[in-house]
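Weekly modeling sync, notes
Attendees: AB, CL, MP (scribe)

Item 1: holo prediction request
CL wants a bound-state model with zinc ion before deciding which constructs to order. AB pointed out that an apo prediction alone won't tell us much about the pocket. Agreed to run with the ligand included and paste results into these notes for async review.

Input as submitted:
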Amino acid sequence: MQQQRQELCVIGDRVQMQHNGDGSGSIVQIYPRDRALSRVEPGGFSGTQAERQQVIVANLDQTIFVFAAANPAPHPRMLDRFLVVAEKAEIPSIHIAVNKVDLITPEAVHHIFDPYARIGYAVHYVSAQSGEGLTELADLLHDQLSVLTGPSGVGKSSLLNQIQPDLGRAVGRVSEATTKGRHTTVYSELIPVAGGGYVADTPGIRSIAPWDVEPTELDAYFIEFKPYIPHCRYKDCMHSDEPGCALRAAVEAGQVSRARYESYLKLQAELNELYIY
Ligand code: GDP
Ligand code: ZN
């Protein structure tokens, strides 16, 4: 039997501690997790999913996905992947922060991100440079266990440092280089937010990808597809070229964003390649 790589206890777990009397403590009990954000290493499935699954943070309250309005240009397809992972993990609260709004016109940036607000995600327009939206972002972190992630260079550390000087390191880039290998240990910690709450510093978050999503369940994680799926002619419709696909009709009618639908198709093709039935 292959060795299970599940850690006993990860950041975010609630535990009972016993003081040892010498300033140290021991964990005597780990309470059940409400939820866990894990990553599964890519490379094809053969039913041994559990062995390669690694929990990176437990009991997460929210994720904040950070992108830049410009420099680097927004990457909606990467955002769509993050959203699938967060939906699959049943993260209660999912936010998108669009930084560097000082660099382009509001119209241009709203054009890209408003569709996400329309389907129900909280989109925050911010600038570490001008200070816009930072109070709102700080409020968001209050009393929550948060993970903040996004491509490098979008200003994650700048934003967090504006809120609280030591928070900038909570963006998971510390051991980015070492998380690529298969058997690396992911060192994580929780950084306290003044006044309550934590931001998780989890290098592993950089490599989360929806590898453990089966192609047939993918449509459930594109939340705005939900109303259309029951109306497809075939129950097991994959919404690619089947006749009578209600989702495709909704895309044609402009009710569902074509870009999101294309993200779905692209991801589905990738998952189909990975998944061995
Ligand atoms: P990270 O890799 O996501 O942590 O990004 P950094 O915080 O290191 O920022 C990357 C670059 O973007 C730095 O040169 C920052 O000065 C710049 N930057 C960060 N936030 C803003 C912003 O709101 N506006 C502008 N114009 N530049 C920013
Ligand atoms: Zn369909």
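Recorded for review: The mean pLDDT is 87.
Action items: CL to compare against the apo run; MP to circulate these notes.
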